[in-house]
């Protein structure tokens, strides 16, 4: 029998594995969504054991190494609907709000772009949405929603699972 569809098999396109450029490889690490502690030896936690072994309060999440908060840094985690799902103790103090009041609130009820009144090409929400879709970590300036004259640099990156936006206040 001849080849199918009137052509030879040699002329058909073939799938091949495309290797990532080592320069573009991003290292991901696990950290606690409450205290930023990393699990021992940066090991992947077992699926049923994602509670932080250090503080016992946070869930272990994964993010790019250059975006992961250091212990003691202020940070928040927002889900795909841009609602706060985790807040570090330092962020609580910085924003003047307890975790119980911060959780499940829209991120805009806590933080807004520092230049919110200026016409910008991308809003704070756009940056968070871009992080959720996997774009590289970015930096911007934010401020508490009810405070003017304050500018805080923030690193924004993807974390998870499930996919979420990590906002680290530097």
TL;DR of this structure?
The chain has 170 residues and is an alpha+beta fold. Helix content is 12%, strand content 25%. Strands 4-3-8-7-6-5 form a six-stranded antiparallel β-sheet. A two-stranded antiparallel ribbon has the order 1-2.
Textual characterization of the structure:
The protein has three helices and eight strands. The protein is an alpha+beta fold. The protein has a single domain, classed as PAS domain (Beta-Lactamase), CATH 3.30.450. It has a six-stranded antiparallel β-sheet. It has a two-stranded antiparallel ribbon with strand order 1-2.
Keywords:
170 residues; alpha+beta; Beta-Lactamase; 6-stranded antiparallel sheet; 8 strands
Give the CATH level 1 class: Alpha Beta
Largest sheet: 6 strands, antiparallel
Portion in strands: 25-35%
H/E topology pattern: EEEEHHEHEEE
| Quaternary | single chain
**Helix and strand composition category:** alpha+beta
At the third CATH level, what is the topology name?
Beta-Lactamase
The parts where pLDDT drops under 50 for at least 5 residues are: none
Terminal CA distance reads 69 Å
The beta-strand count equals 8
Helical amount: 10-25%
How large is the count of helical segments? 3
- Walk across the major sheet and give the strand order: 4-3-8-7-6-5
Average predicted confidence as pLDDT: 83
- Give the name of the CATH architecture: 2-Layer Sandwich
Q: What name goes with the CATH superfamily?
A: PAS domain
**Rg value:** 21 Å
Shape descriptor reads globular
Estimate nothing, just give the exact number of structural domains.
1
